[in-house]
Write a structure and sequence with these properties.
This protein is of the alpha/beta class. The chain contains eleven helices and six strands.
Length: 241
């Protein structure tokens, strides 16, 4: 919940000038109030846009909520579901996140499923079990074919705004575990699934993270509020491992 119309316009203008999308899928997830503005400002680029959240129902008396079809109508093609802040601050359960994943697919959006463990869960040795539980909830709701139509983003909650830092090796370890869990369900899906890393990706660690075998990109948080930092991360992705 950052920025205003002027910020969105300036950010889009910088992307227009930089033309950052060659060889990299670049996506922006603004507050939904700015989706239409961002869509129009990015005409002529390959930058995709989406929403940070959506409601699981198509329509109804859900004041303040946004349906997937509305996101699509505003030019969005993507939707984040299960972000750690939605799970922590708004009490979203694994079952609700699975419903939102299904709703995104129904609306013709590509969902980005966020999974990850808290510091307490990691210290207790439950990190992999927590992530598997979050994955399994979606697989149970829509099967592996449905999951394969989305993207996964691993967010180590303990490495976001806590002063703790996940090393590239730690990030790779969990990404490999996620891919291994998917392989138990469908080896083909595991090989093709894009798994993004979302634990405080910054210009100074992006290249090391993206060099890891099972890290296919980043879900960028605070660094995306500075367009130069964001473009530096995109450049790190474009260079490849």
């Amino acid at each position: 919940m950052h920025g205003d119309a002027a910020f969105v316009a300036a950010f889009a203008g910088s992307l227009q000038a930089a033309k950052p999308a060659a060889g990299v899928d670049v996506l922006l997830f603004p507050p939904v109030a700015y989706l239409l503005l961002l869509r129009d400002a990015l005409v002529g680029t390959q930058v995709g846009i989406g929403a940070q959240n959506l409601h699981p129902e198509i329509e109804g008396a859900y004041t303040g909520e946004v349906a997937g079809e509305m996101i699509r109508d505003l030019g969005g093609s993507w939707a984040i579901v299960g972000h750690s802040e939605r799970r922590q601050l708004f009490g979203e359960t694994d079952a609700l996140v699975a419903q939102k994943f299904a709703a995104a697919l129904r609306a013709g959006l590509c969902p980005v499923l966020c999974v990850g463990e808290s510091l307490e869960e990691r210290l207790a040795g439950d990190a992999e079990a927590v992530v598997n539980r979050q994955l399994d909830a979606v697989i149970a709701a829509i099967d592996c074919l449905g999951l394969a139509r989305g993207v996964i983003a691993y967010e180590p909650v303990w490495a976001i705004g806590t002063g703790e830092t996940a090393t590239p090796d730690q990030a790779q370890e969990m990404h490999a575990a996620i891919r291994g869990r998917l392989a138990q369900v469908s080896p083909e899906m595991a090989g093709e699934m894009r798994i993004l890393y979302g634990g405080s990706v910054k210009p100074d660690n992006a290249a090391q993270l993206f060099a890891q075998a099972d890290i296919d990109g980043g879900l960028v948080g605070g660094a995306s509020l500075n367009v130069r930092d964001f473009l530096a991360i995109v450049a790190a992705a474009s260079r490849g491992p």
